[in-house]
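Allow me, if you will, to draw on your knowledge of protein folds for a short while. I have a record of one protein: its chain in single-letter code and its fold written as discrete structure tokens. The full record is reproduced below for your convenience:
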Amino acid sequence: QEARLTSLTQGGLLAPSGDGLRLAFGSPLERQVAYGRVSVNERATLHRQAAMAMDRALDDPEEVAAQFEAAGDVQSALEKLRQGANRYLDQKDRKRAIDCLKRTCQTAKSMPNEMARFSEDALLLSQLLSQSGASPEAAALLTEAEKLTQNGKDKRLWAQLAGERARLMVESNDFANADKRLVELVKVGQEL
């Protein structure tokens, strides 16, 4: 495989990337032609291998997730995005954490087996959005997560989402709706 990469680099099809550590196609047209010659299964295998190699090298979790997605492994992509969000939060990089969580929520809500995790991700994302001044976006996300969770069995998670939504209502001086929401929360709390 090393000989093949050397041959492709010498032929100009591949070129070292800006950091000199990776290879990239010489042009978009060359990438398109090469992709067209590789079967879907082989392409998925190559993307999975790339994701695993990038993960071992501790590369950008969003890039690793993109490779897993291209390989058709959405579950691994979601886990990588969640790990990335946590990494960025530890590094105090709120913007990147928000970006990771947005992609996570977008992907997770399309997967029936991820509804509870989607709601947990949405709760964390809504708190970050609210702290960043994007309260309307946070409120919309919480409303969506509440609806999905209300149909489920996890009343504690619904209560957390509804509580955060009530906090946003109070923050925006929407006391009448906050009061209604808090009454609902007390009712659910008594059932728990």
